[in-house]
């Protein structure tokens, strides 16, 4: 381990853990991947050996070896283990959504606050340089009236994430919803109300939001449409015209590196507040829960 490097433990060994979390943590100058734990010991050993880390025999064993913990597990599991990690004084890198339900998200956000640890959500698009530049330009211009987000793909029809049981069960609202809602919220002001929510065939979600300051926005989401390549678009409009943001292909590692830059800086300076901290995760979980309730009721506000 290099001097001053954060020792990070990784919980989870799925595709995202293997392709983004582990190599990024191992390669970043401010972090070292110290330990890996998974409910599948062989997978943990294999991933740990690839990056010269230790395969921990238990979560507690992992906690004892590290300064921070990165999670790449289903939301309900993250909510449970994240609380334990925070209570053990570990800084956290948390996936979206924060938890499987609103109560779990609240417990985890409260545990982070009580422990005084740093926690960042892997809202991966927010850390991309093009997103930061786009949001900075929007904030400078002002005067925006509305916007919309579209995230349409066939990710759950086949491929590496099609076998993910939590994604299959929860669908687009929980998986890509946090990304879309976060960007609309960051661009137009905090989402204050879900005005309408409808879930149609192919898990196709249509949502309408009210934002602080009077703007409104829409979101259209599905991971079960045969669309190649995936459509990821955010647009806003107002007195300064129409501005769009797309997703740069293959930018996940670059964005995760930027996340780690922020994470290491927060810990070094003793800062816990960040635009993508655990409270942000709780806010997004509240939006998800309200949308789910409205759609289940079969009526709008």
TrEMBL record:
What the entry lists under InterPro entries is as follows: Gfo/Idh/MocA-like_OxRdtase_N, Gfo/Idh/MocA_oxidrdct_glycsds, GFO_IDH_MocA-like_dom, NAD(P)-bd_dom_sf
Q: Which residues form the Gfo/Idh/MocA-like oxidoreductase N-terminal domain?
A: 6-118
Q: Which SUPFAM superfamilies match?
A: Glyceraldehyde-3-phosphate dehydrogenase-like, C-terminal domain (SSF55347), NAD(P)-binding Rossmann-fold domains (SSF51735)
A Pfam family cross-referenced in the UniProt record is GFO_IDH_MocA
Alphabetized, the UniProt keywords read: Oxidoreductase
Domain (GFO/IDH/MocA-like oxidoreductase): give its ranges. 164-241
Query: Does this UniProt record's set of keywords contain Oxidoreductase?
Result: yes
Q: What name does this protein carry? A: Gfo/Idh/MocA family protein
Name the species this protein comes from. Amycolatopsis samaneae
